[in-house]
Amino acid sequence: ILHQVPRTMKIVIIGAGIAGVVTLKYALNAGHECDVFEQTGELGGTWVYSDQTDMDEFGFPSHRTMYKGLITNLPKEVMEFHNFRYPSAVEKSFLTQPEVLHYVQSYAYQYNLHNKVKYYKRVTKVAPVGTQWSLTVLDLKTKVETSLRYDAVFVCNGHFFHPHIPNIEGQDIFKGSQLHSRDYRTPEKFKNKRVLIIGGSYSGSDIASHILSSARSVKMSHHSPITIRLADGVTTKPAVVKLNENQVMFSDDSDEEVDVILYCTGYKYFYPFLTEECGIKVEDNWVRNLYKHIVNVERPTLLFIGIPFLTCAFPTCDIQARFALATLEKKVALPSKEEMVKELNEHVNNLRRNNIPQRHIHKIGSYFGEYLNDLAKLAKIEPLPPAVIKLYKHFIEDKPIREATRKYVLVDNENYKE
């Protein structure tokens, strides 16, 4: 029997980026008691800019990865929370980092969420205790650790901070600089340098366009053909097979002298605070045991918001949060553990049959609409407007040129126009 009036739960949310903020909004709406722990001093997650790279002021790995001059690679029309539009004064579709951050923080102020966030709090341990959860939280300023109990845990710590750097023969003897895109901030350090960017996706092409005016040359290497449009002056190379002291060897037997290698090779899911008893393992960038990319099948009161990639994060986190809360409130009856595992295995096996590598299990891409509408249907909430799905698919499949002057409008629920 589904209970329509759930008991008030004590919920903890780890992280105050877009996933944490939208989860908090819906959890408070439902009358739950919530704590939000944020390791930094500001709400907004990935969208907060800082000159800081590598380590933060407390000696922990920095979660800041935003660089100066970033323009969104998707139009704002697909980057909105439910029923919260960008101000009408913002007419353009492609936004700067400060404009997106302002939107996220405006959402928090609109619903009085910012006062609920506890800043400079690092969660160091999450462990199940009976049907509840024990959290150990370190106050980074006072160095005092506190142990707390909760009914449910929402992991909203993002996945754009722990870099993935591929192993390449000769990395240890290469005498030039090697850095990951998480450490890129401004183009000045590339002045007169011969730069090789490894990775052929959006961040690589965007950073290439930023450093082109400073660098002596910019080349991009990728193991498969690069399908996104590159700035004039950026040349492409096939996969890197080996490095020596100052040269890079490629799979077509060519080589290039290079001063800087910039790895735009993505990030890894990273949950150092989860104990083994939580039942979560990350293998080849697959967070195992998650039903619908959200619910821990071993312990369904441990939930993850914002895991999928190649998706629109705002509507994805919004609908995921409402689905997850509906499972806690018994408005959505979860299948048995065995049934969830079976469905998960069928999904993974289907991807493997289609030669999708394991590291892409959380990649949504063209299935964006189907995935979110499935969650919305189960949670009995309003589905995503078809116009948003159509516009997103246009960007994923047609890859239109992103130009500052290009403007999109959601005409109605069904249609968009340029």
Give keywords.
alpha/beta; FAD/NAD(P)-binding domain; disordered N terminus; globular; oxidoreductase; monooxygenase; Flavin-containing monooxygenase; 22% helix; flavin adenine dinucleotide binding; 418 residues; 22 strands; five-stranded parallel sheet; 2 domains
The CATH architecture name of the largest domain reads: 3-Layer(bba) Sandwich
CATH topology of the largest domain: FAD/NAD(P)-binding domain
Per DSSP E runs of 2 or more residues, the count of β-strands stands at 22
Which range does the strand content fall in? 15-25%
Global morphology? globular
Counting helices, strands and paired strands, the structural category is: alpha/beta
Give helix % range.
10-25%
- The rounded distance between the terminal residues' Cα atoms is 48 Å
How can the largest sheet be summarized? 5 strands, parallel
Query: Regarding CATH, which class of the largest domain?
Result: Alpha Beta
Number of domains: 2
Spans with pLDDT under 50 lasting ≥5 residues?
1-5
Element layout with pairings:
Blueprint: E1 10-14, H1 18-29, E2 33-38, H2 97-110, E3 117-119, E4 121-129, E5 132-139, E6 145-150, E7 152-155, E8 177-180, E9 194-198, H3 202-211, E10 217-221, E11 234-237, E12 240-243, E13 247-250, E14 255-257, E15 260-263, E16 282-283, E17 286-287, E18 290-291, E19 295-296, E20 302-304, H4 313-328, H5 337-353, H6 368-379, H7 386-398, E21 409-410, E22 416-417
Parallel strand pairs: 1-2, 1-7, 2-3, 7-20, 8-15, 9-10, 9-15, 10-11
Antiparallel strand pairs: 4-5, 5-6, 12-13, 13-14, 16-17, 18-19, 21-22
